[in-house]
Amino acid sequence: MKLATPEGFAENPELVWEWYNERRENIRAAQPNAAHKAIVDLARSAREFLLVTQNVDDLHARAGTPREKMVQIHGDIFETRCSRCDFKANLERCERCGALMRPGVVWFGEMLDPRKIDIVEEFLSRGDVDLALVVGTTAGFGYITDWATRASRVLIEINPDETPLSEMATQTIREPAGIALPRIVDSLR
Ligand SMILES: [Zn+2]
Fold it and tell me: Among candidates 13, 22, 8, which has minimal Cα distance to 101?
């Protein structure tokens, strides 16, 4: 939590980059699991679908979830962007303004990308969806609980632990996503 802040980066950008490069390596070595695959199935079979994920890794994309059906609300760890302007490139310093480049994730204390908020709000504005599945999030951010509860009257929470969303859920499933999600997606066919 200390490194994932604008202050941490200003203090020691090299250390922050070292940490993110290690995280990138770990993610590259990881493989999508049964939950990622179940979400791909759901994205393909549902008439309308939007995945809003707090994950900054690329496992949903690698599993096959189409980019246009996904919002990475906390950013993309494989993106490198300028710490001052909106220039994006895999460089050490911005070729537009000279500031240091940083990972394209949302750090603690930072605002969400308004364009990403717009995608979620636009989707919600089309009306209630049949089902909102809330998977594996601690629901510690107000916007997550807000979107989840506004999306649908039917809210299923999949999480081994209780969260602030649990009492608002129609159903809670206390299992890991890799176990519960494939079963639920199968039952929706
Ligand atoms: Zn710049």
Answer: 13
Q: What is the DSSP letter of 90?
A: S
State the distance from the centre of ligand 1 to the C-alpha of 61, rounded, in angstroms: 27
Q: How far is the CA of 83 from the centre of ligand 1 (A)?
A: 7
Q: Which domains does the chain have, with CATH numbers?
A: 1-30+75-111 (3.30.1600.10), 32-74+112-189 (3.40.50.1220)
Q: How far apart are CA 12 and CA 26, in angstroms?
A: 22
| Ligand 1 centroid – CA 81 distance (Å) | 8
Query: Residue 172: how many CB atoms within 10 A of its CB?
Result: 18
- Candidates 150, 149, 147, 135; CA nearest to 184 is 135
Q: What span, in angstroms and rounded, lies between the C-alpha atoms of 185 and 189?
A: 7
pLDDT digits (tens, 9 = 90+) for 118-145: 999 999 999 989 999 999 998 889 999 9
Average predicted confidence (pLDDT) for the chain: 95
36 is annotated as an active-site residue: no
pLDDT digits (tens, 9 = 90+) for 23-41: 999 999 999 999 999 999 9
Distance 93 CA to ligand 1 centre (A): 8
pLDDT band per the 50, 70, 90 thresholds, residue 116: very high
Catalytic residue among 74, 144, 158, 169: 74
